[in-house]
Write a structure and sequence with these properties.
mainly alpha
Length: about 120
């Protein structure tokens, strides 16, 4: 075992730097934990949309046909933005258990954790 000695001032300086790094990392964890994704940039597929809204895929198809929901088709799959799903809920087009936007975003994040899929 080797013994390393250092000046007490250098030791205190090293401790201060370690504490600053710790405070920065802790702050970043808090920022990342509270940051909500922008609903306009989050794309969810037809299955997840149906699950979040508690409606069938056919209902979503009817809404698309009627022009009540914006969508995109990529690779033969239908995607909606989370903002469009929120608009449906807020406009009472579809009755939903989500009363606030944050509840829908949390439900989306939980769905992702459970299904572990990436678009």
């Amino acid at each position: 075992m080797k013994l390393i000695t250092m000046d007490s001032d250098a030791y205190r300086l090293l401790l201060r730097k370690i504490e600053q790094i710790f405070a920065y990392v802790k702050h970043q964890e808090e920022v990342n934990a509270t940051a909500q994704p922008d609903p306009a940039t989050v794309w969810i597929d037809n299955d997840e949309s149906a699950a979040l809204l508690e409606v069938g895929k056919r209902t979503l198809q009817r809404l698309r046909t009627a022009g009540e929901i914006g969508y995109s088709i990529r690779g033969g799959r239908v995607y909606y933005t989370l903002a469009e799903v929120q608009r449906l809920v807020a406009g009472h087009v579809i009755k939903s258990k989500f009363e606030q936007e944050a509840d829908l975003i949390r439900a989306h994040q939980e769905y992702r954790k459970q299904h572990r899929r990436k678009i």
